[in-house]
Every structure is written in structure tokens, then in C-alpha cells.
Amino acid sequence: MKKTEKEKMIAGEFYQAMGKELMEERQYAKEQLFQYNNLEPSKIKARNQILKKLFGKTTSRFFIEPPFRCDYGYNIYLGDNFYANYNLIILDCAPVYIGDNVMIGPNVSLFTAGHPVHPEPRTAGWEFAKPIAIGDNVWIGGHTVINPGVTIGKNTVIGSGSVVTKNIPENVVAAGNPCRVIREITDADRTTALFPEVK
Hints:
The chain is of the alpha/beta class. The protein has 5 helices and 19 strands. Its EC number is 2.3.1.-.
């Protein structure tokens, strides 16, 4: 049986995004997020209810500062105790898995979507998407871009302004463009974080 463009998109195959089904789903997400981004700041429960209906998975503990943008919503899977600062963008053409206790700084972008390098298929409208996975206890600094297919290991810190093009292991500090591991996180970081005067 022939796959739909949506099935091809989620499977990581080349697909056409401008068909009726995907366009309607993107439009639905835009309408929901218009409401989300324009509610009064005090309407936290109402905002969270919009995301609970839109996302593939949430828990009772998450907070995303508006404005927030995504393509579809149903490919976003949030772990427990999630926080994202202003201007988070998630292009969720493929699944985006976010673990527990993840913190994201302002102006961060998660891009599962990609396009062919060659101009002919690109201008013909072909796209592809690869999943992004962020492990438990990860902190992503502001103005970071995470590219398609990237996995970030648990407990890792991504420095501000990074462009993450490849997988980053767990328990490290990584930063840069392209993002590279700078060092491991050790028990010494626990002490110096709480008591910086202790050497």
C-alpha cells in the first residue's frame, strides 16, 4: 500500500510537505499556538492545556514561556519537569524526545527538518526529517541550534550559541559552532556550583 506523505515524513523518507493533510495539520498547530502565545500571562493552566492537546506527550510539570512555535506538535514528547525560556522553536517533522528535568534557554531552535543539498530536488519541494533526542537533566544554553538526527546524552550542558550537528555524549560540557565536547562533568562541579569559594 502506498504511504502517505505524512507516513513518509515520520519514517524519515523524502516527502512533499505541501499536500493537503500536512498543510492542514500545520495550520491547526498555528491556530492553537496563536491562542497559546496571546493568552494573558496569568493564564498558565489554559496555556498548558493547549500544549497537552497538541503534543504527543506531556506530564503535569512543564512550562514553556511564550512565544513558542512548532510545526505539528504531535511529534513532541516531553519528559517531566521541563522548562523552556522565550522563543523556543521546534520543527517537529520527525519525533522530538525530551527527557526529564530538561532546561532550555531563550531563542533555542530544534530542527528535525532538512532539505536536499542538490538544488533540483530541493526546489521541487522534497524534504526529509530526522528525530532529535535530548536526555534527562540536560541544560541547553540560549541561541543554540540543534540539527536533524542529533542525540544529546543525559546530564550534558550545551553552551550558549552552539550549533549542534552531531551526537553529544552524556555527562559533558559542549559548546561551539560546530558544537564539540569541552570537558567532562565531575563531582567537583557540584561543590564549586554551590560554594564557588571552595577549591
